[in-house]
Amino acid sequence: MDLSPLTAISPLDGRYAARLGALRELFSEYGLIRLRTLTEVRWLQFLASRPEIADFGPLSPVVNGYLDKLAEDFGPEDARRVKAIERTTNHDVKAVEYLIGERLGEDADLDRIRPFVHFACTSEDINNIAYALMLRRGREQLLLPALRELGGRLRALTRANAEQPMLSRTHGQTASPTTLGKEFANVVARLERQVGLLSAVPPMAKINGAVGNFNAHLVAYPDADWPALSEAFIESLGLSWNPYTTQIEPHDWIAEYCDALARINTILLDLSRDCWSYISIGYFRQRRIAGEVGSSTMPHKINPIDFENAEGNLGVANALLQHFSAKLPVSRWQRDLTDSTVLRNLGVALGHSLLAYDSLLKGLGKLEPDPARMAADLDANWEVLGEAIQTVMRRHGQADAYEQLKALTRGERVGAKDLRSFIEGLKLSAADRERLLALTPAGYTGIAAALARRLLDDHDS
């Protein structure tokens, strides 16, 4: 059976393929081979530029230009040639080396530099750099733009609803009121902090030979300062140098990256469930989309499918991210191969994350707050003012204030008239009594609106 979106095993390459084109460019096997080739070429050019590496450079502008073209114009046909070579070598990184050797062998001036392709490298010198570049680009080009767009949508909802009162629910029960905008502000504050932590994770890499000690390098060029050369090369690629490794870079930074992304996803999973729940109690309506069907048998339904899709994809992503975080930093002795197949799934976790962000954006874009429904809920639950009343009573020295309000309100629906009668019988100052008598559930929101606006003002400034 031919591979197509209909026959693909993974929904990322099947049902959702059209939504993940940009991810495929980076995280497919083609993307990995392309970054391996880039790494090999840049190492070759770097060595040629160093005077302490005798018998090699410098390269002419024409040769450098040829190498740049080989790295930067690498396309699917080149990747297919690598895969053809791999069928003979049964080694994926060696196949990249042989491809470059083939291309250099097409010209006599280029052929002389062939011995320096993959010079003193173990496969992991190339692989760890390729994955570091992949994850850095995935973060900068895909994750952060999607998260910023999502943050912008949440900020807009915060701004539009900063003053909109609504009933809180702690333990699923009626609780002190808040505003809808403040609840969105809570998510914005959490999300932005974690996005900052994800942005700060330094992609790390190494290029130091078979077990991290520059063994072969030192024999070939004993006078070269190989740690300094290694550091300079890694930093030339925009990565952070790790001087202490075995054969593999230990992947601690990838664990940090995955943990940061998983925390972001957990916050957004929490948001998805809350939006779903608020839709279910009528605080939000969903805009109707012409032609859409909610239920195959119940024509009235507009199901919260975007939030459900987001929740499901975030769960799959986090299951993978948490496995990566726990597994990748663990390797037997100086190297085992268990990280290889795991690393190939990095794009799967990012794919499910990006699908979730896209679904959340769609879902948030359909939300229409229902102020009347929220107002009716507030007006039906005057007992939530019990907190305010007993706190003012405490201020006036009434030690049993909590117990009095508990007797009046616990498990009971108390109306405005009941509370008014209770307040009028209290021994309070006239000012406090009038303030309590004027209180309504809709007006009992503390500084919720101010907190929502402050978050927006802090960002804008």
Biggest β-sheet: count, sense, barrel?
Answer: 2 strands, antiparallel
Domains (count): 3
Proportion of residues in β-strands:
under 5%
Cα-based radius of gyration, to the nearest Å: 30 Å
CATH fold-level label of the largest domain: Fumarase C, Chain A, domain 2
Distance between the termini: 58 Å
What's the CATH first level of the largest domain?
A: Mainly Alpha
Percentage of residues assigned to helices: 55-70%
Strands, total number: 6
Shape: elongated
Low-confidence residue ranges: none
Describe this structure in words.
With 461 residues, this protein is mainly α. The protein has three domains: 102 residues, Fumarase C, Chain B, domain 1; 216 residues, Fumarase/aspartase (Central domain) (Fumarase C, Chain A, domain 2, Up-down Bundle), CATH 1.20.200.10; 80 residues, Ribonucleotide Reductase Protein R1, domain 1 (Orthogonal Bundle), CATH 1.10.40. It is 62% helix and 5% strand. The two termini are 58 Å apart.
Outline:
The protein is mostly helical.
Descriptive labels:
elongated; 461 residues; mainly alpha; 3 domains; Fumarase C, Chain A, domain 2; two-stranded parallel sheet; two-stranded antiparallel ribbon; Fumarase C, Chain B, domain 1; 20 helices; 62% helix; Ribonucleotide Reductase Protein R1, domain 1; single chain
